[in-house]
Structure formats: structure tokens, C-alpha cells
Amino acid sequence: MKYLANFLRICVGLLFIFSGLIKSNDPTGFSYKLDEYFSVFSADLEPSQDSLIICFNHQNQIDTFSYTINPNQQKIDIVVDQSPWINNTSDESIFERELTFNLNNQEIYRSNTTSFDTLRYISKLSYEISNKLIGQKNIGNLKAIDTIDITSHIIPNPIYVDFFQKLRSFTIPLAMGICVLEVLLGVALILGWAPRLILSSIFILTLFFTFLTWYSAYFNKVTDCGCFGDAIKLTPWESFYKDVILGSATLLIGLGIKHIKPVFSTPFSVKILTISLILSVGFSIYCWHYLPVKNFLKFKKGNDIFQLANVPDNAPSDVYENIFIYAKDGINEEFTIDDISQRNLKEEGYVFVDRIDKLISKGFEPEIHDFKIMDVDQTNDYIDDFYSDSGFKLLIVFNDIEKSDNESIDELKSIIRFCNENQITIYPLTASKTQNVEEFSKKHNLNIPFYYGDKTNLKSIIRSNPGLVLLQKNVVIENWPSTRLPSEKQLSKLTIQ
């Protein structure tokens, strides 16, 4: 037992040091994972809200829709658009019009209705929450707008939901704190300093991580736990099994704790721990303020991003199945097309809720699969133009333009001017709302067109807001954070041959 306990002590200690250093190398990336967990926990713990049931009665026909109440909205705007009556059939006595229903600017229903007597055509809306009628409205004009106040029907969030929401504002210090703690616990365990306290702390921390990885694996949420950052990718189940083994090893060390002897005297061990604390804190702050010392992201220096985004010929594609969600007695159920064809769900009391595409089998996915360069309307993707540009090009990444570092804006404007003068194509990318982008551009006098991408993808390009990525053709030449932007002289050496 003596040799096993000491062997495991070294292994667990080294693993904790390695894990802490890997995450300290990319504290911003680790903070993104913590933010995902806090967001998922707060969403999963939110109370289930009632549904607004909308009944549309027209020509003795009733269509029913269900809309789940959003606790962040105090009202629901219902807009009914009706086109003018037209006669498009051979029977001149039949008229038809198109109906469109929008709830809070989201279309939920579109259909055609017919009538033999348009003057006597009657349509009416009624609304129910928890089987209680809360309002009704006759639809007479071509366009009808109604607003429903749902404030009294919203179920407030419990205190722990608000707690997780508030934690999202502290993900950076929490990420750094966990990284430093892992390093210190690993060093202390190897030194044999205060073994009972250190083992207890390691076991509690391991239990915490075991719960997180189990939650990710079982519920298929936060599918990359970030245990070793982007250096070693583990699936949620792999991470869970790793933590189970780590917890078991910690228990075995505890059984042989009497065999763990201090390597050095207590004062000298404290000095080593103090130095470890200073170095790990300094390293974590450095990597947060600038960029990771070792870049494990896909847009790292030397990578050809086109090759990483390329899908081989004849690669298998994703296979999806249409799933229809219907509600009965407040419970949602899923049905396939075959299920619906064999049953009359309306007569059985079911209410249509939504239609989703469910993934049946996963096809080939390239390492870079969500990189897009969209226009302001989010309709055109210029990624092919980007890849075909064989010259130098500069990505300017603002993953969140409202929270970007504005202290370097003058340097950034100088870089943009240099690029324009030297035929270096710039691609300013953001995931922010158009209005916020326009306000930012006007405030800082940035006369450049912005492109739009996915926020998660932009965060994975570079750990800075903003950050610069210089490419020649599709090969990454260099990365710069907002805190260390290149001078014109540096850019000249890299781009002017």
C-alpha cells in the first residue's frame, strides 16, 4: 500500500499540475466553458412557464397554436396579416386569401382560407392561459394587431437561477482561480505538505468536475468540458470516466495516507508553494492579457484554414428526420411523419407546438465547420471569395463589439489605413447586432464594412476582442491581440515582399 499510495500521489499531483497549466495557458477559453455551464444551469433550473393557447376561428373552422411564455418578455404582440380576397379558380363563386400569424416578429402560421361570401366572412381570435380565457378579438381588417400583457402569468425565477446568471459576470477570475488552485494542489500533493487537507480539497474538486462532466455527457450539453482546454479534446463521457478514475485514485491515496511523508520541511514547502502561486498567477494573467503562450486553436500560425475546412468528395452527410412536437395536458410529445399519418392527433386533443429536424446519424465534419463571412442581412456568405483571395488578408475579429477593447482603436485605425494603402484585404468580422455595429463605427469613425459570423466560432478564432489574424492565401501568418497590435513596420516586414 505504501508504494501504491506514493505512486498514485505523484500521478495525481502531476495530472493536476498539467491540467492547471493547460487551462492557465488559455484562461479566456476556460472562462467560455464556465459561462456555458452557468448559462445551461440557469436555463435548466428556470421554472416551466405556461403556454399561451391561441384559437383562430374562421368559417366554423378552428386552428389552435401554442406559444410558450418567455419570462423575459412582458407582453406578446400578435400580428395577423390577411391578403385581399381574390378569385383564382374556375369557380367564380369561390374566393381565397392568405393568412399569416406573427408572434413577437416570429411567423408561426401561414395558410390559405376560402369563402363563398366574403361579406359575411367572420374570423375571431381567442387566447387562453392555463385553460382560462384571457381575451378575444374579431379580425376584420386586412391587418390586425393585438398586444397581450402576460406579466401576471410569468412564474418568477428562484434565487439559484439568478445566482448562476450573476456568476456569468465573474467567469474570468473564477477560471483563473480554478487554474491556480489545481496547480497548487498538485504541487502540494507531490511535496506531501498537509496531506489530509490537500487530499480532501482534491477529492472535493474532483467530485465537482465529475458532476459537471456527467451533466454534460448525460444531458448532451456543453459537449466540450474544457478539462484540458483545446490541447486535448475529450468527449463528455471520456471526461467523466477520467474524473471517476481520478476520484478513485484519490480515495486509494487516502487509504494509505499514513505512508505519505513530507519531502521537505514545512517552511521550505511553503516557500515552494508561494513561488508556485506567484508563477501560476502571473502566467494566467499574462495569457489572459495577451494570447496563449501555446496556441491550440485552429487559426494558429502556420495552419491552412481552407484545408481544415475542406470536406472530401463522397464524405458522408448528416441524416435528419422531421419530428413534430404536439402538446397534450401540458406535456410535449414527439411524433414522426409515419406516426401522424396513422393517427388523428387533433381529435385526440393534441395541440401542435413545433417542428424540428432531429439528427439520426452524424456525417463528416471538418475541423473548421462554422466559419462564415455573412453580409449585413445574413443572406450572402462570402467565404468562397475569402478562400479564393490569394493575396494577404487581415481578419479583424470583434466577437462582441459592445465589450471590445477600445483603448487600441487608434492603433487599429492605423493598421486599417496601412492595409488599404498596400492592397491587403481586410475582413472585419463580428457577431453583434447591426445597430450596435453602426453605433460603434460612427463613434470611432470606422469607415469599413463589417461582415457577420457566428459568435462561438469567432471566439475560437482568437482569444481577444478585437483580435487580428493575418493570412497569406489561406495560411495563417500571425495573430495579435488588442493589447499588442503590430506596428506598420512589423506589417511591412510580413506583407511587403
Which secondary structure elements does this structure contain, and how are they paired or packed?
Layout: H1 2-25, H2 27-45, E1 51-58, E2 61-68, E3 75-82, E4 95-103, E5 106-115, E6 123-129, E7 132-139, E8 143-149, H3 159-167, H4 171-191, H5 195-219, H6 236-255, H7 266-289, H8 305-309, E9 319-328, E10 331-335, H9 337-342, E11 351-361, H10 383-388, E12 392-398, H11 409-421, E13 425-430, H12 434-444, E14 451-452, H13 455-461, E15 467-472, E16 475-481, H14 488-495
Residue stretches low in confidence (pLDDT < 50, at least 5 long) are none
Helix count from the secondary structure assignment: 14
Number of folding domains?
4
Total beta strands: 16
**Main beta-sheet annotation:** 5 strands, mixed
Q: If you average the pLDDT, what whole number results?
A: 87
Shape: globular
Order of helices and strands: HHEEEEEEEEHHHHHHEEHEHEHEHEHEEH
Radius of gyration over alpha carbons? 29 Å
Proportion in helices: 25-40%
Strand order of the largest sheet: 14-13-12-15-16
Straight-line distance between termini = 66 Å
Structural class by SSE content = alpha+beta
Q: State which percent range the strand residues make up.
A: 15-25%
Description:
The chain has 497 residues and is an alpha+beta fold. It has 4 domains: 2-44 and 166-289, no CATH class; 51-153, no CATH class; 325-361, no CATH class; 383-495, Glutaredoxin. 40% of the residues lie in helices and 24% in strands. It has helices at residues 2-25, 27-45, 159-167, 171-191, 195-219, 236-255, 266-289, 305-309, 337-342, 383-388, 409-421, 434-444, 455-461, 488-495, and strands spanning 51-58, 61-68, 75-82, 95-103, 106-115, 123-129, 132-139, 143-149, 319-328, 331-335, 351-361, 392-398, 425-430, 451-452, 467-472, 475-481. The longest helix is centred in the middle third of the chain and has 25 residues, at 195-219.
